[in-house]
Amino acid sequence: MISVAVAGYSGRMGATVVEAVTAADDMHVVCGIDPYQSEADFPTFTSIDDALEHSSFDVLVDFTQPDVVKATLEKALPAGVNCVVGTTGMTNETLQELAALATNDACLFYAPNFTTGAVLMMEFAKAAAPYFPEAEVLEFHHCNKKDAPSGTAVRTAEIIAAARDFQSTAPGKETEINGAEGARGALIDGVPVHSIRSMGYVASQEVVFGSFGQTLTIRHDSWDRNSYMPGVLLGIRSVEDKSGLIVGLENFMA
């Protein structure tokens, strides 16, 4: 039985993680960590320090905030706790620095997206990238998302850039008119990324490829946070015999 601590258990994603772990027959929630404590059927703590002092767990799942997750991992990884992280906003350099703090062969598993559809979208984008001279990423999220662009969009742009040996020749930031800076999006490894924030969305993304006389659009939509849970549970089950930094759910998808 895998013992799981959930950081941010009072939040929307955290609460969904609690429900999914509780429903699984091979794991259970031993504690929750959240400064905004809410009533729960398990011990709760306001900080990772208190949780480590008064509880024991195999895996920490973190769906909190970009300005909180780093401090949590700085305590959990040196304690030898495997960490499954869905909180975006950290750079690759930060992830590597945090993974270096791990002891007892602990694993830091970070996924910019836990839905199988989003992972496949990125794999399809990787396959298409060498064949199209132009590529742009549009991501759509709810209006309360704390970071832009999303971790999924950043990861997608990085994958596209790594899969091709050329740069886009499409007009870029030099064409933006005065007072409309940013119209061409943020450049991630040479790939324009556009972030849309609005009520009505949970998480959606389009990757638009273009070449002479044709376009290819790859789109994924997530309308319910439960769509993330199979990936979260897969991550929890997979980190036990892993160590170091692992980025991307595709590493665990057979």
In words, what does this structure look like?
The protein is built from 7 helices and 12 strands. The longest helix has 13 residues, at 116-128. The protein has helices spanning 12-23, 48-54, 66-76, 92-99, 116-128, 151-163, 229-238; strands at 2-7, 27-33, 44-45, 59-62, 82-85, 107-110, 134-141, 186-188, 191-197, 203-211, 214-222, 244-247. The strands form 2 sheets. A 7-stranded parallel β-sheet has the order 3-2-1-4-5-6-12, with helices on both faces. Strands 8-9-7-10-11 form a 5-stranded mixed β-sheet. Helices cover 29% and strands 26% of the residues. The protein folds into 2 domains: 2-110 and 225-251, Rossmann fold, CATH 3.40.50.720; 116-222, 2-Layer Sandwich (Dihydrodipicolinate Reductase, domain 2), CATH 3.30.360.10. It is an alpha/beta fold and 254 residues long.
Summarize the structure.
This protein has 254 residues and is of the alpha/beta class. It has helices spanning 12-23, 48-54, 66-76, 92-99, 116-128, 151-163, 229-238; strands spanning 2-7, 27-33, 44-45, 59-62, 82-85, 107-110, 134-141, 186-188, 191-197, 203-211, 214-222, 244-247. The two termini are 23 Å apart.
